[in-house]
Design a protein that fits this description.
By secondary structure, this protein is mainly α. The protein has 24 helices and three strands. The chain has helices spanning 4-19, 21-26, 41-59, 68-87, 92-95, 102-114, 119-143, 151-171, 179-205, 218-228, 235-261, 265-272, 280-301, 355-363, 370-377, 382-390, 395-399, 403-419, 426-450, 456-467, 471-483, 490-509, 514-526, 532-538, and strands spanning 311-316, 329-331, 341-346. The chain has a three-stranded mixed sheet with strand order 1-3-2.
Amino acid sequence: MPSSFASLVDSFLKEEYDDSPTLASSLGLTEYDERLDDVSEPAIRSRIDADNAWLGRFRSVADDGLSAAERIDRDLLVSVLRGRQITQPLEMWRRQPATYLNPGLNGVFSLFLHRLRPERELAEAAAARLAQVPRNIADGIANLDLLRTPRVYLERAVGQARAAAKYARELVPAEVKEPAAKQRLLEAGAKAASAFEEFAAFLDQRKADAKGDYAVGEETYSALLREKEMLPFGTRELREKGREQWDLLSVEANRIAKEIDGGTWQETCERLNKIHAPTPEGMRQEYEEWTEKARAFLRNTGLVTLPKGEMCTVEPSPPFQRPILAVASYNRPPAFKDTLHGHFFVPFPPDGTPPEEVQKRLEGNCSAGIPTTAVHEAYPGHHWHLVMAKLNPSPVRRVYGTPYFNEGWGLYAERVMREQGFFTDPKHLLYQYEATIFRAARIVVDTSLHMNEMTFDDAVKHMVEKGNLTEPNARAEVGRYCSWPTQASSYLTGMLEIIDIRTRWLAKRGASDRPALRAFHDALPGAGMLPTSLAEKAIAS
């Protein structure tokens, strides 16, 4: 018989899936595939009330009667719900146009990405979701207060909406072969595409109204760090950590750069950036090659356990993501389906990008930097971590997590592969340091943007000069920081926390050789995607 806490969790999760069928589908719960999230004002307000009520219920669950694992699950749910509560006053549903694009896009894309049902059923589900896109767009037009919308939110959404129209009209029908299914998708896709185009036109016509502030403020940012991420510091302390790390890492990067060609790390990277694949497909092939090299290194060294049946394919990024994402990304296997197949997306430029800008974007994925990114996204980074997390028996930990662990682990993966000798070429080693320096620059920019102590253009300049980004990539990056406060700071912050956990864990066991590292690596990611303080508790025994 399930415990009372398990029953409470089951009720909460059922409500979460009903509120967000697209989340449920991404987790492999196919019974939700025909539905799309309700983003009307009444539904959003009801969801806010429910979140606050659930937060109170989970906070009232005492330790007595809970197992150690259940206490961690409870604390994870409290952190998730408190994070939502902290951001409620921002009313992002009135300010962020992407709120009304993402359900339809991700909801259809995940169906064909994982293909958990026969093609005919997938086509029916996708058509049903596409048919609901006009309702989401109408809700967006009704709900948005463009006077409170930051210009950067609006511009990103216009590009995404236009890419979404092409995706719905042309690319979704191409996912199926059966003529009747294809025809149904053509019809539903055409209606969805018209709605996306209507939304783009609406936003474009109202550009002059978009005068909102993207900065969430120091108080909100610090509350997210302390109460959602359970970290012992606030915004300004975090910014100082970023500055200190940038200085420390730059010293070592300059030493390596001097060995390569006598320059500073920025000068050497600027030269090496020019050496890249001539085309996006050539770039994808380089990523694929290095992904397999990283996996082979893990297999040969025994640095981690590779679960039987895991697989990571390297693919072009989804078309609707290309206008807003200039870096690699990863999509994990569905949490509740028997598959360990993950997808590593490499950053293709949007359709219609001028040739000179395509080359600039390729500079951001130069040949010397690709090994580090492959490690971060795949082995033993996100893919390996999220496969291990999927094996955790707790449904809470399969669903919820934080970028402060996920992205912290990705950067830790780079570091441990450096420590263990994977990067043998000085150029590759330099770019591992450069990747970490980039994350230090991100901390400075993200905290400064959201304290209103740096403008958008200042942030772009900082990322070009301090983060080794080309200007187009820097603009895409800074746009993301404005839209997702605290996420950009998660990489290096989380990595430093994981290093501290590792130091304490290995010292307690009196060993730091590869078998000890393997035990640590298997234990920590296997505990889930937890805030780092909870992750340490989970492996304390």
